[in-house]
Amino acid sequence: MxxxxxxxxxxxxxxxxxxxxMTCRFRCGDACFHEVPNTSDNxxxxxxxxxxxxxRTMVRAAAVVTVAAAAGTAGVAGALPAAAAPADTSGKSxxxSGKSxxxxxxxxxxxxxxxxxxxxTADAVTVPDGYAQNVVIRWxxxxxxxxxxxxxxxxxxxxxxxxxxxNNDFLALLPIPGECDRQLLVANHEYTDxxxxxxxxxxxxxxxQQVEVAWAAHGLGVVVVEEDRRxxxxxxxxxxxxxxxxxxxxxxxxxxxxxxxDLLKTSADPTGTKVLGTxxxxxxxxxxxxxxxxxxxxxxxxxxxxxxxxxxxxGIGTGATERKWERFxxxxxxxxxxxxxxxxxxxxxxxxxxxxxxxxxHTALGRFKHEAAxxxxxxxxxxxxxxxxxxxxxxxxxxxxxxRMKKGSSRAVREHNLSLLDEGTLYVARLTGDSPTIExxxxxxxxxxxxxxxxxxxxxxxxxxxxxxxxxxxxxxxEEVFVFTRLAGDKVGATKMDRPEDIQPSPVTGKVxxxxxxxxxxxxxxxxxxxxxxxxxxxxxxxxxxxTERLGRPESTTFAWSLxxxxxxxxxxxxxxxxxxxxxxxPISCPDNVAFDPHGNLWISTDGxxxxxxxxxxxxxxRGSRRGELKQFLTVPNGAETCGPIVQDRRVxxxxxxxxxxxxxxxxxxxxxxxxxxxxxxxxAVVAVWRKDGEDIGV
Length: 699
Ligand code: FEO
Ligand code: CA
Ligand code: CA
Fold this sequence. Notes:
This protein has helices spanning 21-26, 157-161, 194-197, 208-217, 309-312, 411-417, 478-483, 485-492, and strands at residues 131-138, 168-175, 182-189, 219-227, 234-236, 244-246, 251-255, 274-276, 281-286, 292-296, 347-350, 360-362, 374-377, 383-388, 392-394, 396-401, 424-433, 453-465, 468-471, 497-498, 500-505, 512-516, 543-549, 558-566, 576-577, 591-596, 602-606, 616-620, 630-635, 641-647, 652-657, 685-691. The protein is mainly beta and 699 residues long. It is globular, with a radius of gyration of 23 Å.
């Protein structure tokens, strides 16, 4: 039975990412309203006439149910919804329209045998029948010794620096040696929504206190969580000695080939190696050596008054910023401190087991809007890191390290492993389609060979060694490649993609999955038109790319690719679910973060669904007879995005980011009452979900 689409309003057309204007403003610095920063004329996926037609038969079952989606009734987009109930902690599917559909299918792939949650607009986290949930930790909960209880009316920077930060995004769970019922939760705090944090916030005149609270609410959080042995419930353990906050003012060390370069020197740091803080950490990754990686994404929005061409390529504006931080610290004013902005846009690495350690920014992984950084090892133990640059028409990258990981936990071994991302080669992806260009008409219609697919190469752009760095890009020094990485991608003709977000290699098959969220500018005006890897013009629902690297070797410089998922309403002929019949898959729009469960199923969270329902989390089989069967597992409250999914045997963990972020909403006029109900301030939070009968997820 098809899941019915909810009868709600058409999503806002004025905000191309499907988000509210407030999300665009605070999260991305209105990225979609600026000119497309990639105006390079490098080619897009080229034409190679396919020798063979119809390598795989496409199954496109006729839709059996026709649903009038977006029928014009009131919805969340563009309007403040009525206050709703507090967070559901009962385990029932909350919100009538989100009720699970039918019984769990025993035919679904192992790990995905739950009743799909129907699309809905409930102001709640809605989970499948038979599942329960709890809020693990909320914005403002004290985690460090001496931090006060949360009081949004009296918030201070000192209090916030000891409390869980705002807008949790990427999540990692790591084991704690000797503490078997506890795990270490690491979270990104991507950005702040000042109008939802401060009563009476005046955007034209923020106060120093508000700005300093925002600095302390950005960054990273480390907090020990305790498991309930009978369920999947997790609770935070305040004041644990491993708990830590990293903020916009914590000292970082710049490492790798660009560290110490003139491009990174400032008046406060003539060495070019020390920088305060990390900003806009979106998704990330966990390394095999027990650290966490965090991508600095839309860092451009914090820097004012630039007119340089290199900054324009990164979307750094010529005027004041939204948050006006430049009024309170001149390092955010490019006109006064031109190189500070070169010290953001990196992958940062944290050793969460050492709360006194100085986190690092790795210049060898390049500087761009890193969505995430996911790691796997070559057979001989060298790290390979995948990272997408989340911007319309930007690229995705791979770093292959030259040093081998060592095993052990001594200080020397740990220090060695923390240097693994300083030496190696950075590559950018170029994709070539195998169908004639004329068959890619921009509608999403499959070409005659039945698949959007082709071959690809990783183009080296620079190599860092212990003795120095070498550029592989004509006209750019190695330092320039590592600091102005987007320009290097332009010069070598990387493929312009539809917002490359999270990337995840399957731990079972080794295939690599790249989430491409959307790109409503594809094919519009002078922008690049559809190609086989980005086959829809005005692509509002996004797609997922599957890469098969040569001989399964992650260090390979060539790969085959195909589109695994072309997202949208399954009734839309332009959608594709890896060939699985479309009459029993969940609608999905705007894939963003991806993760694997222990069974090898891919889990996808969404950001900015354009189907009129709330964002959510979905599981999909990537192999076997159920490959492509996509099932929605949960939905998030009004205005929220689903982030940071982790799927363990007994538990699903998600970060509910920016709940209540709806145009016009304020502290006084909230658009959501999640998670604590009416009269309480809306708070981003981490949620754990488990099966009420104590069994594993989806079996
Ligand atoms: Fe922070 Fe690309 O999402
Ligand atoms: Ca093809
Ligand atoms: Ca994201």
